[in-house]
Amino acid sequence: MDCHASLAMTKPGFMARIETERYFGVRPTQGAIPLFTYEGHGVSPKETAALAKPSASGLAPVVIPEYLQKTYWWAYLHPNAVRIFERQWLVNLILWGNFARLRDAALQELGAVIRGKVLQVACVYGDFTQQLLRRLGPDGQLDVVDVAPIQIRNLQSKLGHSSQVKILQQDSSELHFEDASHDAVVVFFLLHEQPAEVRRKTIAEALRVTRPGGKLIFVDYHKPLARSPWRYLMVPILSTLEPFAMDMWRGEIADWLPADLPVAELKKQTYFGGLYQKVVIWR
Ligand SMILES: C[S@@+](CC[C@H](N)C(=O)[O-])C[C@H]1O[C@@H](n2cnc3c(N)ncnc32)[C@H](O)[C@@H]1O
Question: How many domains does the chain have?
């Protein structure tokens, strides 16, 4: 049984409503990392208190993962992060001019008119979700989850209200959806930011909530071809700024799939001399 709890979070002059979807009674929160102080990293003390409150369902509250606080606070949690990074040209520059191409490669997998229930795991700077929404047919439904309240608020302000969209605070490594609850799931540039054990859980959860016959789409970094200059240029950039990203060069998403959930088919396509990949999995 699903239950919707809502969490009202206030900042001076700002009121946002974040829905936290709970998977009732069946999937207890495991391995939650205790909150530590991240004042100034995008969540006010009031919000911290709200997040720390036990939920009505008795499950532990959603907490900001430690890797996000330690490694990516400047990109996703600090109040200035959204102000700085929420620029289409900048996200395009970070992907060396490939944002639109990779976004469209992911969206194309969902079809020109999206029917059914789609889940986007983690918010993205730029217009990824707006473009997804444009393709949503009248009977389409979009859920977007992110673990960071500031990112949820940012997406809410980008999208405005739509009865077809739910924006939920959830951790990708422990989704609060029922098994096989979505027709398609898309995970755009999240895996490279996660430590190995979190990445495996995110993949397993994304697969779990995809219905049999449904599609799971990953777009992320990949090891460039030997002849590509990016093979050398990206090493210092990724090693310095994104400590887990080089894992995407060393391993394959296929290797990180859970053993207990077989997949029907998997297709991989690479882009930009192999620096980026799209992996599509049919459950
Ligand atoms: C999708 S990734 C990066 C995408 C891309 N580089 C961009 O331009 O935004 C960034 C988002 O992932 C979210 N995120 C990181 N770890 C998460 C987790 N365990 N669960 C849910 N969201 C997470 C962050 O809060 C952030 O909003």
Answer: 1
Residues framing ligand 1 (Cβ under 6 A): 65, 68, 76, 91, 122-126, 145-148, 151, 171-173, 188-190, 193
Range of the domain at 152: 2-282
Per-residue confidence (pLDDT) for residue 11, from 0 to 100 = 30
CA 264 to ligand 1 center in whole angstroms: 27
CATH at 9 = 3.40.50.150
* CA-proximal residue: ligand 1, atom 9 (nearest): 124
Residue corresponding to tokens 């001399």: 273
Non-local (6+) Cβ contacts of 136 within 8 A are 113, 114, 118, 142, 164
- Ligand 1, closest atom to CA 187? 1
Using the mean position of ligand 1's atoms as its centre, give its distance from the Cα of residue 77 in Å. Answer: 10
Q: What is the pLDDT of residue 60?
A: 57
Structure confidence at residue 61 (pLDDT):
76
HSE value, Cβ hemisphere, 13 Å, CA-based, for 18: 27
In the prediction, which pLDDT does 117 show?
98
- Spell out, as residue ranges, where the chain has pLDDT lower than 70: 1-60
Determine the pLDDT at residue 30.
32
Atom nearest to 65 CA in ligand 1: 19
- Position 62 scores a pLDDT of 85
- What pLDDT was estimated at residue 39? 34
Mutate to test the pocket of ligand 1, among 155, 193, 203 (most ligand atoms within 8 A of CB): 193
Q: Are 265 and 281 in contact (CB under 8 A)?
A: yes
